[in-house]
Backbone:
């Protein structure tokens, strides 16, 4: 009976050792589960941010497209206005008249007895024409 008792004690020691190993493994498994749940939460947060960025990008693209359309319309309007101005700026002899030729008609010579005034008006005219 003592040998049987000794065998049972030995078996208890073996089972306790096995139990301790299983507890260690269980602790590792719990740690891994915690890390996994944290990773899942991080992944969910990243997906949420990704959706947010995609939405913001889509809104930005829509605003940009609207702005481009407005600029294209404005460009077309300005092209049309320029064509009208070019057609209406044809001189009497049928030759186009550029703005440098038209300016002397708008700014006639100013003659005053003061030579400085003549110099100043001609300097102003040169600046405008150049």
Residues:
């Amino acid at each position: 009976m003592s040998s049987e008792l000794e065998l049972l004690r030995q078996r208890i020691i073996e089972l306790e050792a096995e139990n301790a190993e299983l507890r260690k493994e269980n602790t590792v498994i719990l740690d891994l589960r915690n890390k996994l749940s944290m990773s899942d939460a991080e992944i969910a947060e990243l997906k949420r941010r990704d959706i947010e960025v995609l939405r913001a990008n889509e809104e930005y693209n829509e605003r940009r497209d609207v702005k481009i359309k407005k600029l294209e319309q404005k460009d077309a309007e300005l092209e049309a206005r320029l064509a009208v101005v070019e057609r209406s700026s044809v001189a009497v002899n049928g030759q186009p008249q550029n703005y440098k030729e038209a300016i002397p008609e708008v700014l006639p010579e100013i003659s005053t007895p003061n030579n400085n005034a003549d110099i100043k008006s001609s300097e102003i005219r040169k600046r405008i024409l150049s």
About this structure: Residues 102-112 have pLDDT under 50 and may be disordered.
